[in-house]
Amino acid sequence: MKVSDILRVKGNTLYTVGPEEPLARAIDIMAEKDIGSLVVMDHGDLVGMLTFREVIQCIVTNQHTVGSTVVRTAMDDHPLTCTMETELDEVRRMMLERHARYMPVMDKRMLMGVISLYDVAKAVVDSQNFENRMLKAYIRDWPASEDSQPTAQL
């Protein structure tokens, strides 16, 4: 399974923010849309990722206030990315290694979407459920062999 398979099911709704946008506005967007991340874009280029983790760290650093902080101050400016062709096993390894919950999907310089650890886990569970159903159907329809037929007693 590849990242493109996840995005095909998930859809392509994207939420972005600029690096000079007030952090308070970004937090409002995240709360309003009920999302855990925003991709930070500047002049069409990916420049960072803002997740609730960065927001919380910034608020704690600023003595529990957002104030006039801008997104650039809080964002991760070296986000982990993948492509549409990245295998799901590789995405899982990358996300676990970096403790990343969200990953922008890129096609060269174009943002194609964002996948979350939830999306990855759901894809794995869905795939396993499908495989289990296929195996159960195969076992249920198992052809009877001649050797397994009971023989008549004479």
UniProtKB/TrEMBL annotation:
Keyword set includes Phosphoprotein: no
SUPFAM superfamilies registered for this protein in UniProt: CBS-domain pair
Pfam families given in the database record: CBS (PF00571)
Domain named CBS: residues: 6-66, 75-131
N-terminal signal peptide: none
Keywords tagged on the record: CBS domain
Keyword Cytoplasm among UniProt keywords: no
Protein known as: CBS domain-containing protein
Species, as recorded: Ramlibacter pallidus
